[in-house]
């Protein structure tokens, strides 16, 4: 079995994440034994070209068995490029590209072939991280929380804190670092908060032909339409208790609430919707966190960050304030999770996905001929 082939103790794992924004593949090295973080290694960003992004965008919402050949080719090629050339890697964690996510319905679909990637890289690859959790009644997401727990311990945190990922979708993890293990009761509470950047990006693309609202420049010129914000907050998702998760386009209809507004007011209102969804999420924290550490591209949006700061009592800081890398945190998470899978350690628990019991998700593929270094 693989466990016997991996070196004991800390190993160098390489993780890859292709996020819901469809911007590209992040790849990053973590030195970890699956429990503790010992250090961080190099990282790389391999953007999708416009043409590749268009192929992936067309594939959104599709399930295995549907016409996916071209999209699979994009995902495999980009990952092979992103993950090649790192030195002394023992194990790879490959998230793939989420195309569809219906935890209470058809399941979850991350496009990508871990077997082929293992052959291509000559390295063992852990993939399909989410399915096992869903089979056991979980949401299959978010999965970064077990890594957030390790980060909190690496930081030496002594009091509860929270991590917020502002990607296409937002997700929040409340961590109690005083607990011994991430799957101990009360150590973690995690869930998706709502849409984050995806609707802003969609409106920027449709109205301005731009990929996103750089530095919140357009939102800053606009006024928030309170009526639209209130209608948005009436969505049943906000009444659900966590854990809960979202598909990228679960809130695509919210764009209809801003159709009548001019560009600046529309983007300001969507920004306020995403920030307010986070504030609603913060109300679920079992104890007030001593700080909120923000990762993902949304931490670069000062308007979104100001909205959070204005409404929260605790400091709201980019994860860099704690010595972490907010552009690579999720890629690192899948490196760390891969080691957990290979060692049979859980990757989710009732507090993070609502799964019935802690579960080690993921499938392991080994290359027929493993490279030596
Ligand atoms: N300078 C900036 N100003 C405003 N927004 C920004 C800036 N930089 C990045 N973003 C936003 O962050 C997004 C990318 O975030 P990120 O890479 O965390 O998303 P992702 O990993 O694809 O998403 P997810 O975590 O949902 O899978 C961009 O599409 C954009 O909306
Ligand atoms: C199904 C899926 O891919 N979900 C992503 C998405 O992007 C953010 C949010 O929605 C989170 O639930 C998850 O990703 C992060 C990395 C996670 O699993 O922790």
Features:
373 residues, alpha/beta, Nucleotidyltransferase, domain 5, 7-stranded mixed β-sheet, 5-stranded mixed β-sheet, 13 helices, binds adenosine-5'-triphosphate, binds the ligand CC(=O)N[C@H]1[C@@H]2OC[C@@H](O2)[C@@H](O)[C@@H]1O[C@H](C)C(=O)O, transferase, kinase, ATP binding, phosphotransferase activity, alcohol group as acceptor, nucleotide-binding
- The value of Rg in angstroms is 20 Å
Tertiary shape: globular
Helix content: 25-40%
**CATH topology call of the largest domain:** Nucleotidyltransferase, domain 5
- Our measurement of the CA-to-CA distance between the termini, rounded to an integer number of angstroms, reads 20 Å
Catalogue the ligands: adenosine-5'-triphosphate, ligand AH0
Question: Which CATH class of the largest domain applies here?
Answer: Alpha Beta
Q: Tally the helices: what do you get?
A: 13
| Alpha-beta content class | alpha/beta
Which spans have pLDDT < 50 for at least 5 consecutive residues?
none
Total domains, how many? Answer: 2
**What would CATH call the homologous superfamily of the largest domain?**
ATPase, nucleotide binding domain
Q: Work out the number of β strands.
A: 12
CATH architecture of the largest domain, please?
A: 2-Layer Sandwich
Mean pLDDT level:
95
What fraction strand? 15-25%
What is the string of SSEs from the N terminus onward?
Answer: HEEEHHEEHEHHEEEHHHHEHEHHE
State the major sheet.
7 strands, mixed
Family: Belongs to the anhydro-N-acetylmuramic acid kinase family.
GO molecular function: ATP binding; kinase activity; phosphotransferase activity, alcohol group as acceptor
Keywords: ATP-binding, Carbohydrate metabolism, Kinase, Nucleotide-binding, Transferase
Organism: Roseovarius litoreus
């Amino acid at each position: 079995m693989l466990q016997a082939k991996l070196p004991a103790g800390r190993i160098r794992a390489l993780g890859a994440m292709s996020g819901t924004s469809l911007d590209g593949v992040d790849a990053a090295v973590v030195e970890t034994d699956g429990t503790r973080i010992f250090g961080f290694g190099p990282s790389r960003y391999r953007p999708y070209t416009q043409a590749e992004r268009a192929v992936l965008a067309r594939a959104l919402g599709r399930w295995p068995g549907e016409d996916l050949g071209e999209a699979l080719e994009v995902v495999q090629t980009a990952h092979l490029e992103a993950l090649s050339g790192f030195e002394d890697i023992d194990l790879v964690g490959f998230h793939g590209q989420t195309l569809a996510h219906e935890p209470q319905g058809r399941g979850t679909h991350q496009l990508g072939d871990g077997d082929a990637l293992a052959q291509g890289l000559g390295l063992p690859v852990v993939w399909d991280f989410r399915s096992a959790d869903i089979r056991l009644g979980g949401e299959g997401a978010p999965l970064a929380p077990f890594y957030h727990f390790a980060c909190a311990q690496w930081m030496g945190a002594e009091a509860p804190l929270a991590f917020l990922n502002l990607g296409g979708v937002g997700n929040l993890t409340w961590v109690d670092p005083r607990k011994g293990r991430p799957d101990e009761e009360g150590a973690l509470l995690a869930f998706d908060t709502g849409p984050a950047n995806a609707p802003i990006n969609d409106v920027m693309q449709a109205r301005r032909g731009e990929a996103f609202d750089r530095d919140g420049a357009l939102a800053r010129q606009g006024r928030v339409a309170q009526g639209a914000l209130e209608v948005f907050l009436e969505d049943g998702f906000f009444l659900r208790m966590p854990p809960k998760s979202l598909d990228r386009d679960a809130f695509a209809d919210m764009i209809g609430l801003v159709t009548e507004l001019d560009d600046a007011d529309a983007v300001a209102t969507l920004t306020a919707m995403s920030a307010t969804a986070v504030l609603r999420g913060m109300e679920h924290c079992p104890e007030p966190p001593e700080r909120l550490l923000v990762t993902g591209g949304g931490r670069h949006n000062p308007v979104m960050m100001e909205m959070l700061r204005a409404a929260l009592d605790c400091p709201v800081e980019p994860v860099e304030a704690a010595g972490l890398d907010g552009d690579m945190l999720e890629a690192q998470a899948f490196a760390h999770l891969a080691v957990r899978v290979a060692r049979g350690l859980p990757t989710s628990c009732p507090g993070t996905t609502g799964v019935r019991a802690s579960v080690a998700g993921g499938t392991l593929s080994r290359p027929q001929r493993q490279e030596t270094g």
